[in-house]
Description:
This protein is of the alpha+beta class. It contains 37 helices and 25 strands. The strands form four sheets. It has an eight-stranded mixed sheet with strand order 1-2-3-4-8-5-7-6, sandwiched between helices. It has a six-stranded mixed sheet with strand order 14-15-19-16-18-17, with helices on both faces. Strand 14 (540-543) and strand 15 form a beta hairpin.
Amino acid sequence: MNCKTIMLSALSLLATATWAQSYHYETVKGDPMQTRIYTLPNGLKVYTSVNKEKPRLQTYIAVRTGSRNDPKETTGLAHYLEHLMFKGTTHFGTSNLAAEQPLLDSIENRFEQYRHITDPVARKRWYEKIDSLSQLAAKYNIPNEYDKMMASIGSEGSNAYTSNDVTCYQEDIPNNEIDTWAKIQADRFQNMVIRGFHTELEAVYEEYNIGLSSDGNKEWTALGKKLYPTHPYGTQTTIGTQEHLKNPSIVNIKNYFHRYYVPNNVAICLAGDFDPNKAVATIDKYFGSWKPSTTLSRPEYAPVADLKQHVDTTVVGQEAENVILGWKFDKAASDQSDTLSFISDLLSNGKAGLMDVDLNQPMKVMSAGTGVEGLADYTTFIAEGEPKQGQKLEEVRDLMLAEIEKLKRGEFDENLMKAVLANKKLNMLRGLSSNRNRTEMMKDAFINGESWQHVVGQLDRMSKITKEQIVDFARRHFLDNYVCVYKRLGNDTTIHKIEKPHITPIPTNNDKHSDFLTAVVNSKPEPIQPQFIDFNKDLAKGKMKNGAEVLYKQNATDDLFDLSLVFPVGRENSKQLQVAADYLDYVGTATRSANDIKKAFYQLACDYSVSVSDDETRVSLSGLNENMPAALKLMGDYINHAKADAESYNKFVGLTLKSRNDAKGNQRVCFSALRQYGEYGPYNGFRNKMSADELHKANPQQLLAQLKNLGKYTLLYYGATPMKQLEATVAKSYPCTMKTTLPAARRYTRTTTTQNEVWIAPYDAKNIYMTQYLNENKQWTPEQAPVNALFGEYFGGGMNAIVFQELREARGLAYSAGAWLTTPDRKGDPECFNTYIITQNDKMTDCIKEFNQLLNNMPERQAGLDLAKQSLMKSIATARTTKFSVLNAYLTARKRGLNYDINRVIYDKLPSLTMADLVKFAKENISGKPYRYIILGDEKELDMNTLQKIGPVKRLTKEEIFGF
């Protein structure tokens, strides 16, 4: 979440300083997060914020460097270094550093020579030498020791990312593991060793290939090139060029590491339930010896020249057409960001912005909106629009520009400005409940060089901005000085795949472990006791006079509320329900227009939605509790008196049909459609939609009438209003019939797999998406939950799991790979099993071979099982279901036929499970079974002979998987 949107206005913004033991920290008066900012003697920054909701804390280690600082001859370096930071240190990841180091040095030297070889035959021979040498080094390498240590301490969301200005390393850990976490991270950042280089390079290739299919990536790159032609924001990308990825430099990576990975260029951000003083003392114990740089610097660039007139550029691809406009502004830490954030919400906020009211609501375009991307050196203001069927991109551009001109003329209500501020306050309050939001704010402030005083004071500053100032700013800055990127349909001839090199799989060496890992696994912090939901105590239950069930939980912490009316009817009852819910967004009532209704909700600082799933429909409200009665009355009137009209309905049908057609150009959406078809057959949730003919012939008023005839509901509420008062408010403000006129549900049913077979659908890309699907119609029981959970963690659930280690770490076959058992959402549905992989086309055969080897002969690794068990136990012990989630958890359990928290069963049973249990489970449930291979890819580039040997090949068209 953008830090500029979630800060409470402060009456006074004077920074204060406090001494805790020997650690000096700064605070800002009025800060709702009560953030402390410590600076250790070596320059390391530590941001802390306490949130006691659960005994965990989110940790970020943010390095103030990214692709902006990549050497021009080896772009993508910062991102590749991020990957290598998971490979170990001088203390872990190796069984014999002394024997390994000369081999690593030789690999480094050979890569330096490889970079300068241009003859393809000579390159191939030289790479074979690197591969052979890597096999020798791999004898000492112990892959995934970092992941094993994170699993052992119960970390969740272990990850990292690289962007223009930042490389950020993330862990969500139990609060009794701060000492172990800090010990591991300090060693990682001070003693990193580059190993497993060529297999990890393949993972980066795979990530690059995934990006080739994203037209959005192409647009963003094209925008940067024109808007920042003399700055790295425009001259190089984070992933790097294909040529540079093929010619990496370990020397450059090491130089980069030593230049930027220094304590006075790093911030540690912590948010959760912990003692800041103790945490900082722990960090100092392990990071305090880290030597700062006395020559810290970064490349500096001359200011990018302002555009004198707009510049057009075009990219092509399979995804839906759209147009992006971008303007250049000052850095994120400047006061311009306040005004830009304000202007963005005035133009587009989803309800009452100028583009919402003038373009989206009357359906003059498919969609239009704005956003702000603040970076350390510059900020980009963006307007993006999608065309209707037959509409030219130039018209969409002109319509968006016209709204900006309207703002420059001051043609907006000052009440809209008040509503923008109220909703920013609402977003701030919501954001406080998330530890990740808190650390995101801290990270952004550090990376962008923004003082915490400035962060905290944003809403207060924005509250003082006048309409005149907005208009003046817009007139001075929003000129004919933008870049326009047209994304058009077409064949992108610039895409070239990276040929698969020959890589000998490296050993996983699972029989080895470092002393460092052993010490971490054997550490015994004071245990955290689990807290399971008691459905008889943790929520209140009642019944309204109309027979509606009430599930209630009081909010005693803030002024927010969440409310849902849950109706037990969904798409399985009527495929018209989804259309009705979507169309509702474009209609009003006899007394209020659609725009009036959206403006009213926005002024109340309340959100609303009508969502339809397979078996239920939810009418939901959330926002400031003081406005709950008014919002509920508004919603009740809206649903019960919604008024259709032919003009809006015909436009809506046009948008709907274009949206469906556009989806066929999106690789991920195509795979979702294929998976639904492959697992459920022709009658599934993706295909069960009104046809074009049905849409055109439907009576729109009758469609809307379904929303007020959904029958008996269950009321879910989390807020401060007393239960009896709530019941009276709902009964008065949301009158509805308690009987439905909708037909009985026809449930979506998973198909069984009786033989090995291949179902393939076309998509023109350099990679495939594939899942192996298994369903023997076995019924799930709660007694199976513990072994299911442990098997998922051990075999396919994360970076320490068997699948990830073998397919990515050992063989470099994929960027993303996993496997899981699906626990059914409803009692009576079967459990099923899936594998999942995204891989380069020419690696498909290898992936299938290795996956089947794992499925049919699950590796038995006791150390891995112990870690999986330890990780699960700690995750469950520190999990806390709170607030509105308690009510949803109750409904979820009830759908499965349970009246208790299934996590209690899992936690109690886990200690007694053994490898024999997992082996038995694998043999009975995944080994030697008939799988359906569901593949999205370009058949012309795939080894179809391999697929035909698996079993019958069924070719599906996009029309079949989408249903239109």
